[in-house]
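Final report, Chapter 2: Outcomes

The project's central promise was a pipeline that accepts a single protein chain and returns its three-dimensional structure in a standardized token representation, suitable for archiving and comparison. That pipeline is now operational. To close this chapter, we reproduce one record exactly as it appears in the project archive, with the input sequence first and the structure output second.
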Amino acid sequence: LTSDEMMQRCIKGRTQNSNESLHHRIWSYSNKAKYQTKRHADFAVSHAVADYNSGYVRSCLDTALGYRRSAVTQAQLELMEKQMKEKRNRGGKKRKREVDTSYEPGGH
């Protein structure tokens, strides 16, 4: 982190990289583990950008029209955010691999 401002953003739970949300959406439409064609990559990027922009436009439109979230909507959004954070935290644990004695590097 290069500045106090960046540190404050990260402490508040925001991302250091403003494009991280868009990158996450792109990778959600494409599989990192398998080879993807350029056509598939272009589709993933186009779809993610359209999805990302529609959310931004929708929130700007709601603000411009003066819509306020109801208590029920706010509670639902908070629940969804909590579930996403829990899901993200669950996936981080890695299992230890069992030792396979049938293969040893350099063993003949």
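Archive annotation: DSSP finds four helices and no strands in the chain.
This record, like all others produced under the grant, will remain available to the consortium after the project formally closes.
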